[in-house]
Amino acid sequence: MANPEGTPIWYELMTADPDASKAFYDDVIGWTIEAQPSGEMDYRMIDSGSGGGSVGGVMRLTEAMQAGGAKPTWLFYIGVNDVDASVEKIKAAGGSVLMPAWDIPGIGRIAMVADPQGIPFYIMRGASEESSTAFDRMGMGKCNWNELSTPDQAGANAFYATVFGWTYPDKMPMGAMGDYIFVHVGDQVIGATMNHPGDGPPPAWRFYFRAPDIEQAAAKVTKNGGTVHAGPMEVPGGDRIIVASDPHGVMFGVVGPGNQGA
């Protein structure tokens, strides 16, 4: 893993119906999700559809997983240099371990954890020496933005700074909502944190994936049984976004160029 520690390196959709999720996201984002499992476990790779390689994977939620409390959701993997050392940092900083570290031969070492506010994510030390490009600020079909909505913004920011070395040099006032605080890994902006508004979807990480036309993406969300909750709307920098949920109620975002349909 050549990415700097603290960089998002993989995105994963957990769903009870991978075939339906494939049909939805392939159309809305322009991805090509594998039609069949890659191996014994139903885990399907997400191709960006733009020639840029993989974005992440789709994992089927089994009945046993759902009985244990697993729900459809998007999660991401944060790259670290040492998974076991990072697990100890997470615990010391008030986070929790949901699934202890384990090895996947040829893939890397992984643990599923949560921040002090209970918001889950993975940490991973990848086996490959190549850099992940799953997160790419302008990459078509890639995740362009990672956004944390949290009930304790100051506490969350301190946690991620302690564990991953994130910094927060810039912010944008949002009135009664407080500040939209930008997250840097080194000199790269990977997203932002914000105060949870207290209603609507629960606190979580939300991921924005780039599509070529935001108006078309919004129409396809609705056509395929999803819901557009906000947008299309312009954001600083000129892009336009929507906040949406898929037919299984999983929240996600889409970002596209701002010079269309305005």
From TrEMBL:
It comes from the Bacteria. Pfam families: Glyoxalase. PROSITE patterns: VOC (PS51819). Residues 7-126, 142-257 form the VOC domain. This is VOC family protein. It comes from Sphingomonas oligophenolica.
